[in-house]
């Protein structure tokens, strides 16, 4: 059986799924999205993702295509039709279709597209492997808190990283501070064992995995602080890691040419991976 996608009320073969060339998502990146991990047939932090989708839509005054309850029904059906128990759901909502013109007309019918992807189940062993990141200038717009499909800067950055044999690129703002990865949030652990990640603001996406990690750190009584850190501070850190719904938590053992800590995944990070693995398990 081939892959099935959902487009505006229909379940269609993936290869035949299409939206109009005048869709504002295509013309202007006038569109927002979410990616949700699926473990054991369950959405990980599904409500959090749907709440963030709602916020992105609201910030851009795009009409919500349907209620959370209905979105969840579509997700369930898509997972069922694709026979997926481990993987991810991708959903995109654009403002809709209109003749190309910068100002958008009122009352457009939003376009809703969903796809499901099969992935391997969460595997601690895989996550225990350290990865390399490279630093790049953050050239994105000033509303990175909205999860728009305007991802060209990230796509260029991650391609650059891949060509350097790196797993991710961490973006650096004009003042030399790390904002976040191209598709993940950035974390370091300093020499006194404090977990550090940039505070929420318009310059980063409020990651759902980030939120869960902070919640777990709080519950476990781990030391943490939400503040910006420079690239130099990151290179001198004891440990580093990067987090997202699709890659979960990956220990960072090298940034550019600098080895982080011992050059092996550190204790703090391994603990966070374990906590996050258990946290996901509880939702299945
Ligand atoms: N990206 N920062 C950026 C710029 C991101 O694109 C993502 C996620 C994150 C992590 O957010 P979360 O923990 O909610 O997944 C941070 C998704 C996975 C993507 O674009 O595929």
List the helices and strands and how they pair.
Layout: E1 4-7, E2 10-13, H1 24-28, E3 31-39, E4 42-43, H2 46-59, H3 68-82, E5 87-94, E6 111-118, H4 124-127, E7 131-137, H5 152-163, E8 168-172, E9 178-181, E10 185-189, E11 195-197, H6 208-220, E12 224-226, H7 231-235, E13 239-244, E14 248-255, E15 258-259, H8 267-282
Parallel strand pairs: 7-8, 7-14, 11-12
Antiparallel strand pairs: 1-2, 1-6, 3-4, 3-5, 5-6, 8-9, 10-11, 10-13, 13-14, 14-15
The chain binds N-(5'-phosphopyridoxyl)-D-alanine.
In short:
The protein is of the alpha+beta class and 284 residues long.
If you had to describe this structure to a student in words, what would you say it looks like?
- A hairpin with a 2-residue loop joins strand 14 (248-255) and strand 15 (258-259).
- Helix 6 (208-220) crosses helix 8 (267-282).
- By secondary structure, this protein is α+β, with helices and mostly antiparallel strands.
- It has 2 domains: 4-118, Aminotransferase class 4, branched-chain amino acid transferase, N-terminal domain (D-amino Acid Aminotransferase, Chain A, domain 1), CATH 3.30.470; 124-281, D-amino Acid Aminotransferase, subunit A, domain 2 (D-amino Acid Aminotransferase, Chain A, domain 2), CATH 3.20.10.10.
- The radius of gyration is 19 Å and the shape is globular.
- The mean pLDDT is 97.
- The protein has helices at 24-28, 46-59, 68-82, 124-127, 152-163, 208-220, 231-235, 267-282, and strands spanning 4-7, 10-13, 31-39, 42-43, 87-94, 111-118, 131-137, 168-172, 178-181, 185-189, 195-197, 224-226, 239-244, 248-255, 258-259.
- The strands form 2 sheets. Strands 7, 8, 9, 10, 11, 12, 13, 14 and 15 form a 9-stranded mixed beta sheet that branches. Strands 2-1-6-5-3-4 form a 6-stranded antiparallel beta sheet.
- Residues 35, 180, 183-185, 205, 207-210, 243-246 line the site of N-(5'-phosphopyridoxyl)-D-alanine (PDD).
């Amino acid at each position: 059986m081939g892959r099935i996608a959902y487009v505006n009320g229909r379940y269609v073969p993936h290869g035949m799924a299409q939206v109009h060339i005048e869709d504002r998502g295509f013309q202007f990146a006038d569109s927002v999205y979410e990616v949700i991990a699926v473990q054991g047939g369950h959405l990980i932090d599904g409500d959090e993702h749907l709440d963030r989708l709602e916020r992105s839509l609201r910030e851009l005054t795009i009409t919500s295509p349907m209620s959370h309850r209905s979105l969840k029904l579509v997700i369930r059906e898509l997972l069922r039709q694709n026979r997926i128990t481990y993987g991810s759901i991708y959903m995109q909502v654009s403002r809709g279709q209109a003749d190309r013109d910068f100002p958008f007309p009122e009352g457009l019918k939003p376009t809703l597209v969903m796809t499901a992807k099969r992935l391997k189940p969460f595997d601690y062993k895989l996550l225990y492997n350290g990865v390399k990141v490279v630093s790049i200038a953050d050239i994105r717009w000033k509303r990175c808190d909205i999860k728009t499909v305007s991802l060209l800067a990230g796509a260029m950055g991650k391609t650059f990283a891949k060509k350097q044999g790196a797993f991710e690129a961490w973006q650096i703002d004009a003042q030399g501070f790390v904002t976040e990865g191209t598709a993940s949030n950035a974390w370091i652990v300093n020499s006194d064992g404090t977990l550090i990640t940039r505070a929420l603001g318009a310059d980063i996406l409020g990651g759902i995995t980030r939120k869960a990690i902070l919640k777990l750190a709080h519950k476990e009584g781990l030391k943490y602080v939400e503040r910006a850190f420079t690239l130099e501070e990151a290179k001198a850190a004891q440990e580093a890691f990067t987090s997202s719904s699709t890659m979960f938590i990956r220990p960072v053992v090298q940034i550019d040419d600098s080895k982080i800590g011992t050059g092996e995944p550190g204790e703090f990070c391994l603990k966070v991976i374990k906590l996050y693995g258990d946290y996901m398990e509880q939702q299945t």
